[in-house]
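Protein data:
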Amino acid sequence: MEIIRFADLKPEPWRNGGGVTRQIAGHSGAGSGHDGGWDWRVSIAEVGKAGEFSPFPGMERVLTVVEGELLLLTVDGAEHPLEKYRAFRFPGGADTTCALPTGDVRNLNVITRAGKYKGFTSIIELSKKRAHPLFAGQLGVLLQGQATASSPAAPGAASAGSGAPGPVALDRYDAVVGSDSGSPEVLGRGFLAVVSIDEITG
């Protein structure tokens, strides 16, 4: 079982000074130049200043406000008020700006190469009675509350980053990497973002 600790992620300041991004996961691809040579990326951004978004031509974005009340996004001239936990999909190459009418926000960003991968973000409410499994191609990011992750198919195995067997406590914004072999499960109270990255075939 692999757990990506948010506290260990390196902050990357935006070029315009409006925010900071921490990359949770990504996949290198055939891209080059401005997009950095990756096919998909999942990150959390802290936005503290209104302004322009960096363009990602040839990419598709799914943005979800996970902390704060409201982000006012303008995409190619059209305004979109984004409330907390409501995912919004838009072209990465679009002319995009944001305003912060209720203060700073934190966003979960999923960016995929159009025509090659498709990204999805679902917000689920966790249960202490029924664990939520995570499969290959998925990431589970704890947004709020208290939860543990475990790998029931390998109950005696040491968990990544824990050094001990059994359930591993998650901190806010920690991510659990899904797997089809001994699929990890998240149990607790609060909200979990499930990010799915699907490869487009055919």
